[in-house]
């Protein structure tokens, strides 16, 4: 799994990157967290405001600092490990629905 945090390097972007790393560690998943500050790369991804977070190339949020719970949910969704912890509306994993 690849988690990408997009942003120019402000404190909000740093907070988002830190929370992503903490979420990966807490969940014990195999994931690479990268920080992208290149404006061209952000434009290619469709990032219009920062910070932004993508999981495996899918943009999950932009323009706000997501909560750690948001990031953990996205990681679970991306890894297929929803189980009993899943609270995603419409998810068909058989977890929390």
From TrEMBL:
SUPFAM superfamilies: Thioredoxin-like (SSF52833)
Domain of life of the organism encoding this protein: Bacteria
Domain Thioredoxin-like fold: 1-75
Coiled coil (UniProt feature): none
Stated name of the protein: TM0996/MTH895 family glutaredoxin-like protein
Organism (species): Phaeovibrio sulfidiphilus
């Amino acid at each position: 799994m690849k988690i990408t945090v997009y942003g120019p390097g402000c404190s909000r972007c740093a907070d988002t990157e830190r929370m992503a790393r903490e979420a990966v560690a807490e969940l014990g998943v195999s994931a690479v967290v990268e920080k992208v500050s290149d404006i061209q790369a952000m434009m290619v991804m469709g990032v219009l405001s920062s910070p932004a977070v993508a999981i495996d190339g899918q943009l999950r949020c932009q323009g706000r600092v997501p909560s750690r719970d948001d990031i953990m949910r996205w990681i679970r969704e991306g890894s297929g490990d929803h189980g009993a912890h899943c609270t995603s509306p419409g998810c068909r994993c058989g977890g929390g629905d």
